[in-house]
Design goal:
single chain; alpha/beta; Spore Coat Polysaccharide Biosynthesis Protein SpsA, Chain A; seven-stranded mixed β-sheet; 9 strands; 27% helix; globular
């Protein structure tokens, strides 16, 4: 963790269901003998001051993981924006000195190890800019740096029915930070959605591709 990231709280969004893989918690699927969730925690922990898991339902299924589990504060499983808000509220209650949270998806096992540093470097000076990661011509809205000061605004938007991340970020100052594709031509934000993705991730983890 660098000085620039020591006041940031990490949120691992782990609510995705593996519907295209037969159901259950996608984040508990394994590659290289390690669950996707464990890989996300290992990658993000050195980059932030504190870290929590955002997931709904019975938190006992994550009892083997050290970070606390934080449930959505908006009922109804309304998507990743609710996880962003839950992370903001947890941070306000537990790390009041933190100005930002950073979110990552638990099904993206190779996200950059300097993600937090790069996103913070790209943040505006007003402290209210939302910073999103991008690669290969695409923005990745679940990989973002979020000012905790926007929590009330986000809660209002969710309660009004807004659900899509980019619909909300478009209402604010938004900055994109581009991450380059590596020498192995692997997008750092490659995510696991289907069985063939899991198989590819296994090969990547083994250094085969």
């Amino acid at each position: 963790m660098t000085n620039i990231t020591k006041g940031v709280v990490g949120i691992v969004l782990a609510g995705g269901q593996a519907r295209r893989m037969g159901g259950g918690d996608k984040c508990l699927l394994e590659i290289g003998g390690q669950s996707l969730l464990a890989r996300a925690i290992d990658r993000l922990t050195p980059q932030v001051r504190d870290l929590v898991i955002n997931a709904n339902g019975d938190s006992a299924r994550f009892a083997s993981f050290e970070p606390a589990v934080v449930k959505d504060t908006i009922e109804g499983f309304v998507g990743p924006l609710a996880g962003v808000l839950a992370g903001m509220r947890w941070t306000q209650d537990n790390v009041p000195g933190a100005s930002y949270i950073i979110t990552v998806a638990s099904d993206t096992p190779f996200f950059p190890r300097d993600l937090a540093h790069r996103l913070l470097q790209g943040a505006g000076s007003d402290g209210l800019s939302i910073v999103l990661a991008a690669s290969n011509g695409r923005v990745h809205p679940v990989f973002g740096l979020w000012p905790v000061a926007l929590a009330d605004d986000l809660e209002k938007a969710l309660n009004s029915g807004l659900r899509k991340i980019l619909d909300w970020t478009d209402m604010h100052e938004k900055i994109e930070v581009v991450f380059e594709i590596g020498a192995a031509q692997i997008d750092p934000f490659f995510n696991v959605n289907r069985p063939e993705d899991l198989a590819k991730a296994e090969l990547i983890a083994e250094g085969v591709v």
